[in-house]
Design brief:
Elements (H helix, E strand, L loop, with lengths): L1 E2 L8 E2 L16 H4 L1 H30 L11 H7 L4 H32 L3 H12 L6 H11 L8 H6 L5 H4 L5 H26 L3 H9 L4 H12 L1 H15 L4 H9 L10 H10 L4 H26 L6
Helix pairs in contact: 2-15, 3-15, 4-9, 4-12, 5-9, 6-13, 12-15, 14-15
Length: about 325
């Protein structure tokens, strides 16, 4: 006869002797024997984060609050870059781009994920997911180079559409007023497929019993999407918002390549990252570049905090 152990105690038999084997709890030291393995797996990520994330950030903070001679400069670098005539136009460009891109992600990614999830034909659903993911296989620079041809009416496969919109030349297409929409389309084409797959996976985790219960109660597909699926996707949408915001504030490759390809029709200080690049490598002012980087970091953290709190990203179920 074996007596059940008290809370936290070992199992004993009727004679009071401790029972050996798996039921008797872990042998002394066994819990600690597995701990180093966890550290081993985590250590490469931790070292890379330290080397390429934390240390550069701390160095940027040091540069932002010092002058060229290494002396303490207070907020002089921040005052200088904010007062630059190029700063606020760059802020407006990135802001408009982010609004268009994030709204596009919210509407089209979630909508397309719901459509793919609703497709009952297995091979069609698999094909759609593969097609959505394909553009993401291209690196950022390669994607922009491809779009240089797409945006040129003389070489574009959609030249008829561009002509119908009144564009006859590449310069007309990439006028500064068109750029936020163009950059949002490029970013969506490149990155939306991966997010569609993530949302599709999240939809698969919703209990089929909940969906079936809603159907029994008379809910149609639209009601199920808005009243069940979308609320349960809230955390995933918030996660997408945080990651996309972090990437969007670092807009650089697209305007930089378009600036070179258009002979400066697109300005080389269009975005904040480009402006920081100009400070660092054209004006040799690394302190000013670090100040712009910190401003970007603070703004991105504040906006991410809004996504996290409103989306309940860390709330327990």
């Amino acid at each position: 006869m074996t007596l059940a152990p008290p809370s936290g105690g070992p199992a004993v038999d009727a004679s009071g002797r401790r029972r050996s084997g798996r039921g008797g709890g872990r042998p002394p030291g066994r819990a600690f024997a597995r701990t180093p393995i966890g550290y081993l797996f985590v250590s490469p990520y931790a070292l890379l984060t330290l080397a390429f994330g934390i240390v550069p950030s701390l160095y940027a903070v040091l540069l932002a609050f010092t002058d060229a001679d290494g002396g303490f400069a207070g907020f002089d670098n921040f005052t200088k870059v904010v007062g630059d005539f190029r700063f606020w136009p760059a802020v407006s460009h990135v802001t408009v781009y982010l609004v268009i891109w994030l709204l596009g992600l919210l509407v089209f990614v979630v909508g397309l994920a719901l459509v793919v999830h609703a497709v009952s034909v297995r091979w069609l659903s698999t094909t759609l997911r593969f097609v959505y993911y394909l553009p993401g296989a291209l690196a950022g620079a390669s994607s922009v180079l491809l779009w240089l041809f797409v945006l040129d009416p003389t070489a574009s496969p959609v030249s008829g559409l561009l002509g119908a919109m009144g564009f006859d030349s590449f310069v007309q297409v990439i006028q500064p007023g068109h750029l936020p929409v163009i950059f949002a389309i490029i970013a969506f084409w490149t990155g939306a497929g991966g997010w569609i797959l993530i949302m599709y996976g999240a939809l698969n985790n919703i209990s089929t019993e909940v969906i079936e219960a809603a159907r029994i109660d008379g809910a149609n597909a639209v009601q199920i999407a808005f009243r069940i699926q979308l609320p349960l996707l809230r955390k995933w949408v918030a996660y997408m918002g945080v990651m996309s915001l972090a990437a969007g504030t670092q807009l650089f490759v697209e305007p930089q390549l378009l600036s070179q390809a258009s002979n400066a029709v697109v300005p080389n200080d269009y975005s904040l990252n480009q402006l920081a690049y100009q400070y660092a490598f054209q004006q040799n002012d690394f302190n000013g570049a670090a100040a712009i980087s910190l401003i970007l970091l603070v703004v991105a953290l504040l906006l991410s905090w809004v996504f996290v709190t409103r989306g309940g990203l860390f709330e327990k179920e």
